[in-house]
Amino acid sequence: MIPDGEIEICGKKCVCRPKYVAETRCDLSLTPIYRRWYPNGKKHVPEDLVLTPLTVAHWFCGDGTSSYRPNNGGIIVSFATDCFTFDECEVLAYKLNTLCPEFSFNAWCNKSRKNQPRIRTGNKTSVSAFFDCVTPVLSKYFSYKIKSR
Length: 149
Known about the structure:
The chain is an alpha+beta fold and 149 residues long. It has helices at 31-37, 53-63, 86-97, 124-134; strands spanning 5-9, 12-16, 64-69, 74-80, 108-111, 117-121.
């Protein structure tokens, strides 16, 4: 950690703030997983991907968001899927919709303002179903991602 305070660099005064760095180490046992997701160096959805409430909860923690949308009167859940094609996005939406037969997610794909594919679910029933499915396996540290009205 760099200490807090003011230092001089090349004759200029600079203010230092505490800084922490987290990094992961390389582990050869992860290579097959990397090759599965990044064939030819470009990220793709593996054809044999199986979604579970736990994998979706992890995905939601990393690339998902929930937000209140006053114009449609409710909460919307969305996943950033920028690196995938629209077709891959539709496959993921289908897998989400068939994840838990007792829940009806009604996920769909559309394009963001930057013309990137996004997966969304936005009616009251589907958002509640999504939260009911992932909340039991979601770490308490990510509970802030669950919006309620």
